[in-house]
Amino acid sequence: MSEITTKTDAKSEKTENAIVNYVGRKNGPEFAIRVSPLTELINNSLHIKAIYHIFVAILLMLLFDTVIYDLVEKGKINVGLNAIVKGFCDMGRATRLWLFEFAVVTAFYVGLRTYAVGIKLFKKHPETRQVLSILGVSGVAFLQIILIGGPIWSLSKENLALGTSAIVTCEMFRFAMKIHSVVIVCGPRCHREDLPLPSFKHYVYYLFAPTLVYRDTYPRTKKIRWSVVLFHFSEVAAIIFYNSFLAERFILPYWSDYGKNSQIEAGTVVRGMFACVLPGVISFLCGFYGILHAWLNAFAEMLRFGDRLFYEEWWTTSSFSRYYRAWNRVVHSWLHYNIYKPLVPHAGRPFSTFIVFFISAVAHEVILAFSFGFFFPVLLIEFGVFGLLFLPLTSASGRRFPEFLNLLIWLSFFLGNGILWSMYPMEYFARKNCPPTENDSFFIPKSFTCPEIVLKPNWTFQNPLRIIY
Prior knowledge:
single chain; mainly alpha; two-stranded parallel ribbon; 16 helices
């Protein structure tokens, strides 16, 4: 009996080693039990914890300012709940679209198992196996088209609210990347006897695990700390509330009337754009913390997922290449090992880098377009054009002048987020407030023609160095 057990254990160990070697050789990043950088900094540094408290205090003071002013001036309290309700309305339809997406990724697993059975059944018939391989690739492509095309078709017919549309489109791309990763790792296994396919239980675990890179096993923690889960989800709820509050406090006063008049002074537009810089950066930082730290850590804790290095210390970087690698390691790992590395031997580094940026920029633009209900490629230009140009410009100079380049990168964050927080609301309210015309289109911006941006009457340039007594 012990001899049989020993042989079984040896066989299992051999299979496990084969899987580890095969996966590691093909798909790069290894997983280990690690905490997120901010978790370590906040827990171990009183200075970082103080900065965390400063951000909370700033947001609370903004909240107090609005609440007290509205109460004294209008006799009512407005703390941004209207934006949350409007932004996440029609959750029923969003849930149905999500269930459709989940059904597609479940059908993929059934197809993978069926394909493996067919390949092994006809292992002595190479012509039939070749036909099955073509059918398998075609089936995966068909499922990916259905997964992405179904929600886009539905949203193009009738758009959802901003928040619910973002959920549907983000989940759509997340599931598509998950399927691709499984195909890369498990597709060749269908032709081998020594590498088993994942069980359905592990496949479902992978679908919800905070990673886009498939592995048969992940480092696991010993227990679930539900207090940590509750704390991170409360942070996510607070950040959604604060982003909604910032929108009502800073966007609506400047842009809600945009397009109601046929003309608007250029000074008003410039003042509104600069007024949105600070709330834009705060929203940017809150969004990073809420999604890449709090949300992913909450799911990692619930699933006992040990590797929580979802990002690195991007805030200290002096080059954009380092920023793009460190900002979101979850997506970067998928792009690097599934798009960049396979392309480099055939297309070279510059073209492969361009393709990675292009794919990422298009995905972001699809999410924004179907969330807002119009195509307005501001982020596409910032990310896919200027972001790509800054890579070589900051690669060498970032090493020679790290502090100066870090300052410039943060200035670009301020400027870029100020533009995003201004131009998307301008386009949104222009489409809402301007009279409809025959040229109105999903793809043609309206804020550039309605309203007309003009200078003040009798405006002249004056020498700024001239002293008036």
